[in-house]
Automatic annotation (TrEMBL), chain A:
It comes from Siccirubricoccus deserti. This is PqqD family protein. It comes from the Bacteria.
UniProtKB/TrEMBL annotation, chain B:
Pfam families: Radical_SAM, SPASM. Its cofactor is [4Fe-4S] cluster. Gene3D superfamilies: Aldolase class I (3.20.20.70). InterPro entries: 4Fe4S-binding_SPASM_dom, Aldolase_TIM, PqqE-like, Radical_SAM_PqqE_MftC-like, rSAM, rSAM_sf. Keywords: 4Fe-4S, Iron, Iron-sulfur, Metal-binding, S-adenosyl-L-methionine. GO terms for molecular function: 4 iron, 4 sulfur cluster binding; catalytic activity; metal ion binding. This is Radical SAM protein. Residues 10-230 form the Radical SAM core domain. It comes from Siccirubricoccus deserti.
Length: 103, 337
């Protein structure tokens, strides 16, 4: 399992609609013209990335809320889901940026 | 004693149906809105619709289901759709006849709609045009589906099951497959508008409806949406709707039964808090189908059809096998609205 690194930010134009009665957040992604229903942890991860955040700051903020032993794993799962659904943008740290043909 | 089951509670709605206009270029014999060729002057103009969209967004609404009449029949409709673009997940229901390649491109690129739902009442021009009352409407609607698919829009085909088309549903499915439509919906008929006037002629018994559904063979990969047992949803818990005149009516299928207030005079959330609106959302019913509640996450079946046949808001839904209790769906009670 690898720790989150680099910089995370919400994809532009997302509309988050918390549904506190059901403990979920419905997200409208205009670029995909799709609605997503996020559970509490994915919702938290997405909220913490509002305005953009470094992975270190994200992990720190996450640990303040999620205190279980598997908090890091839960964060990784949430980030993977958000990235797979193109709700998050990830900028790798320079050292982990993919090699280009010219480099 | 166990507490009676209740539906999930939403303080504010997530999705709203907009019955944008009661005008249409077709004359369907099954039309729930009893549409006219020209829009009434009393319908909300585009500017008022845009103001309502602003309020809905502020109130937390995130999804719109837009229908008519035929929304595309009103020249100012795209102004409203563009106003919604990027702010709401939009599903647009249409008869398809006005969807040209240029319009489909605009619906995709400028309006960003999520889904186009096209009503096709039979597998061929003879069946469809007999339903719409307009020769040539089938060819135009099929061209509309092709244009929407070519523009990259998620395009689905809908039909309302009646005696006029039940025997042709397998051919209808084949038509959808041939067009490349991956999701189809077969909808129950509602005794509303013009279909109410021809109910005895159009409606099947519940057994006939199930037989037609069960005989269907879907091609691989095709998804069928249908709301009969065990999918008899009670969507009232999350549904709100606004008609062409600005009335808050809860659901398009409640259009002839309720009015929670006109948005020219009252706030949308005030109508959401109307005691009857609350009651319909609550799941306060005398009897519920456990299988359907389990699959749908809410219970009690459709309040519109329950009311149409029993005249009570807490009545069982006769379109569900478990709660039908011998109600003949071909015989609509003669009850003043
Ligand atoms: S009246 Fe029927 S279709 Fe309309 S919201 Fe209620 S259950 Fe759903």
């Amino acid at each position: 399992m690898s720790c989150p690194t680099g910089h995370y930010s919400q994809m532009p134009g997302l509309r988050l609609r918390p549904v506190r009665e059901l403990g979920v957040c419905v997200v409208f992604a205009p670029a995909e013209a799709r609605l997503f229903r996020l559970n509490a942890q994915s919702w938290l991860a997405l909220e913490l990335c509002r305005g953009g955040t470094t992975a270190a700051a994200l992990r720190k903020a996450w640990r303040e809320v999620v205190t279980s032993d598997d908090a890091e794993e839960r964060l990784r799962v949430a980030l993977d889901l958000l990235l797979a659904n193109r709700l998050l943008h990830h900028e790798p740290a320079p050292a982990e940026a993919p090699m280009t043909a010219a480099s | 004693m166990t507490a009676p089951p209740r539906n999930p509670v939403l303080e504010r709605p997530l999705k709203v149906t907009l019955s944008f206009t009661s005008s249409c270029n077709l004359r369907c014999r099954h039309c729930y809105a009893d549409c006219t060729a020209a829009a009434s002057a009393a319908e909300l103009p585009a500017a008022e619709w845009c103001g309502i969209l602003d309020r809905l967004e502020a109130d937390g609404v995130i999804g719109l289901y837009i229908e008519g009449g035929e929304p595309l029949h009103r020249a100012d409709f795209l102004d409203v759709l563009r106003h919604a673009a990027g702010r709401f997940h939009v599903q647009l229901r249409t008869n398809g006849t006005l969807v040209t390649p240029a319009l489909a491109a605009a619906l995709k690129a400028e309006c960003g709609i999520a889904t186009l739902l096209v009503d096709i009442m039979g597998p061929d021009a003879a069946t469809h045009d007999a339903a719409t009352g307009v020769a040539g409407s089938f060819d135009l609607a099929i061209a509309g589906i092709r244009a929407a698919l070519a523009a990259g829009i998620d395009t689905q085909m809908l039909t309302i099951m009646t005696r006029w088309n039940a025997a042709r549903l397998q051919d209808w499915v084949a038509l959808a497959a041939g067009l490349g439509v991956a999701t189809v919906g077969i909808l129950r008929p509602y005794p509303l508008g013009r279909l109410r006037q021809r109910w005895a002629e159009a409606s099947l018994s519940l057994e006939e409806m199930h037989a037609a559904l069960e005989a269907l063979r879907l091609p691989p990969g095709m998804r069928l949406m249908q709301s009969w047992h065990p999918n008899n949803g009670n969507c009232c818990w999350q549904t709100a709707a606004i008609d062409a005149f600005g009335n808050s009516i809860g659901c398009a299928y409640l259009r002839e039964y309720v009015n929670f207030g006109n948005l020219r005079e009252v706030g949308f959330l005030d109508t959401w808090a109307h005691p009857l609106h609350r009651q319909l959302r609550s799941g306060a019913v005398t009897e519920s189908c456990g299988d359907c509640a389990a699959t749908q996450g809410s219970h009690g079946g459709c309040r519109s059809t329950a009311f149409a046949f029993h005249g009570r808001w807490d009545a069982p839904d006769p379109f569900d096998r478990a709660t039908n209790h011998g109600v003949d769906l071909r015989v609509l009670p003669d009850r003043p609205l």
